[in-house]
Design a protein that fits this description.
Distance between the termini: 23 Å
Strand content: over 45%
């Protein structure tokens, strides 16, 4: 299994109907033929539902002067934004120049920059998010019991009449 960058989380994902302990894995482990952006059952871990996410990771933003030879830009200083995608493997090598430098023409006269350009370098990364779909309860009230409907789902019912739900307070533990 891929390097586990576990950020152990416990949250309830109401929108997907998935409840319980969750974790995150670097990369995307979706089974072949499965849409990785939809929820899918983990092929090894029973009672676990997973989904891949594509995330944009900003590395840095660099500022630099840009120059123009167009007569229409003379005297107009303009700031502009640009974005440049790099490979994840190249992210650590992205560096900004330490200073904003001026340019000189062939007569060694200062050339006035036409503007300032802010370039944001980024890459896309995938992460697999998985959550347990099994239910488990803590502090089952007296007179109640837990019954399993299947290997991943349980209910708390009355001991004397298992067709009736338990009336006491229940605590979901994941």
């Amino acid at each position: 299994m891929k390097k586990v960058g576990i950020i152990a989380l416990i949250f309830i994902s109401i929108s997907s109907g998935v409840r319980g302990a969750c974790y995150q894995i670097d990369g995307c482990d979706a089974p072949e033929g499965q849409n990785p952006l939809e929820y899918w059952s983990h092929p090894v871990e029973k009672c676990t539902s997973c989904r891949c996410e594509l995330q944009r990771v900003d590395i840095t933003t660099c500022s630099e002067f840009y120059y123009s030879t167009k007569k229409s830009t003379v005297g107009q200083f303009v700031e502009k934004e640009e974005e440049t995608e790099v490979l994840k493997e190249d992210a650590e090598s992205v560096q900004c120049t330490s200073t904003l430098s001026f340019q000189y023409d062939e007569n060694q006269e200062l050339v006035i920059p036409a503007g300032l350009k802010h370039v944001t370098y980024f890459y896309y990364d995938t992460t697999t998010h998985c959550c347990s779909t099994s239910s488990s309860y803590g502090n089952i009230p007296p007179g109640c019991m837990e019954i399993y409907e299947d290997e991943c789902t349980s209910s708390i019912v009355q001991e004397d009449d298992p067709t009736q739900p338990c009336n006491g307070p229940l605590f979901f533990t994941g």
